UniProtKB/TrEMBL annotation:
Lineage: Bacteria, Bacillati, Bacillota, Candidatus Fermentithermobacillia, Candidatus Fermentithermobacillales
Record organism: Candidatus Fermentithermobacillus carboniphilus
InterPro entries for this protein: Flag_MotA_CS (IPR000540), MotA-like (IPR047055), MotA_ExbB_proton_chnl (IPR002898)
PROSITE patterns: MOTA
Superkingdom, taxonomy of origin: Bacteria
Region of interest: Disordered: 247-271
Official protein name in the record: Flagellar motor protein
Length: 271
C-alpha cells in the first residue's frame, strides 16, 4: 500500500470535513440532484470518451495508485550483477534455470532472450518495443483520470447553472433565494473537490509510477545487454548504479564470492 496516497486523500477529506463542520452542519452540503449531475455527468462523459473495456477498468486502474508495489531498483541491480557473475563463470546457458525464479517478467524475458542466443540488436529491439507499449497502456489510465478531472468542475458548473435557473423562477419569494443559491453552489463544490482531491491526484500518481517503472525497465535493458556482452560484473554494477540516487546506491552489493573470500578466484581480476 502506498502510504503517501492513502495519507494524502484521507487527510485531504478530513481537513475539508473539519472546515465544513466548523461552519455548520454537514447537511448543508448534501444535495442528491447535485450528486447526480456532478458524479453522473462526469462518469457518462468519460464513458463517451473511452472504450467500454477501459472505462470498466477504472477501479482497477485507480487501485494501482494506492496498492501497487513499486519495484526496488537496487535489488534488481543486485540480481543482474549476480547473473553477470554467473554468466562469466559458467556461461549464459547456466542462467536458464535461474530465469524461472525471477519475479519480474520483464527481466525474465530479457534473460531468456539472451540464453536463447538472440542477437544484442534484436534483444534491445524486443525489450524497447515492449517498454514502449507498457508506457502507452499506462498513458490510457492516466489520461482517463485527467479527463474525469476536467469534466467534474464543468458538470459542477452546469449543476450550478441549473440551480440558478430554478432559483430565478422563485424571485417573487425572497425567502427561497438564499437556500436556492446555496444548493446551486453545492454542485460546483462537488466538482472542485472531486477534481482536485481525487481524479487529478490519482492521475499524477499514476504518471509518476509509470515514469518510475519505465526508468527501471530501461536499467534492466542495459543490464541484460551487459550480461550478454560478458561485461565484468563490477563494470555492470557501476554502470547500473548510475540509475540510482546516492542513498539508493548504498543498498547495492557485490556477490559474496567477489568480496575477497579466501580461496575464491575473483572474476573481477580478469579485466
Amino acid at each position: 500500500m502506498d502510504r503517501a496516497s492513502v495519507l494524502g486523500i484521507v487527510s485531504g477529506f478530513g481537513l475539508v470535513l473539519w472546515a465544513m463542520l466548523m461552519g455548520g452542519s454537514l447537511k448543508l452540503f448534501w444535495d442528491v440532484p447535485s450528486v447526480l449531475i456532478t458524479v453522473g455527468g462526469t462518469l457518462t462523459a468519460t464513458l463517451m470518451s473511452y472504450p467500454m473495456e477501459t472505462f470498466l477498468d477504472v477501479l482497477k486502474i485507480a487501485k494501482n495508485a494506492f496498492f501497487s508495489k513499486e519495484p526496488d531498483l537496487s535489488e534488481t541491480i543486485n540480481t543482474i550483477v549476480r547473473f553477470a557473475d554467473k554468466a562469466r563463470r559458467e556461461g549464459l546457458l547456466a542462467l536458464d534455470q535461474d530465469a524461472d525464479a525471477l519475479e519480474d517478467p520483464f527481466l525474465q524475458k530479457g534473460v531468456r532472450l539472451v540464453v536463447d542466443g538472440t542477437t544484442p540488436e534484436l534483444v534491445r529491439s524486443i525489450l524497447e518495443t515492449e517498454l514502449a507499449f507498457v508506457a502507452e497502456r499506462h498513458k490510457v489510465g492516466q489520461s482517463m483520470f485527467e479527463t474525469m478531472g476536467a469534466f467534474a468542475p464543468a458538470f459542477g458548473m452546469l449543476g450550478t447553472l441549473i440551480g440558478l435557473i430554478q432559483m430565478l423562477v422563485t424571485l417573487d419569494q425572497p425567502e427561497k433565494i438564499g437556500p436556492g443559491m446555496a444548493v446551486a453552489l453545492v454542485t460546483t463544490f462537488y466538482g472542485s473537490i472531486l477534481a482536485n482531491l481525487v481524479f487529478l491526484p490519482i492521475a499524477n500518481k499514476l504518471k509518476n509510477r509509470s515514469a518510475r517503472e519505465v526508468f527501471i525497465k530501461e536499467a534492466i535493458i542495459e543490464g541484460v545487454l551487459s550480461i550478454q556482452a560478458g561485461d565484468n560484473p563490477r563494470i555492470v554494477q557501476e554502470k547500473l548504479k548510475s540509475f540510482l540516487s546516492p542513498k539508493e546506491r548504498e543498498r547495492v552489493s557485490m556477490p559474496s564470492r567477489v568480496k575477497g573470500v579466501p580461496g575464491s578466484e575473483s572474476p573481477f581480476d580478469a579485466k
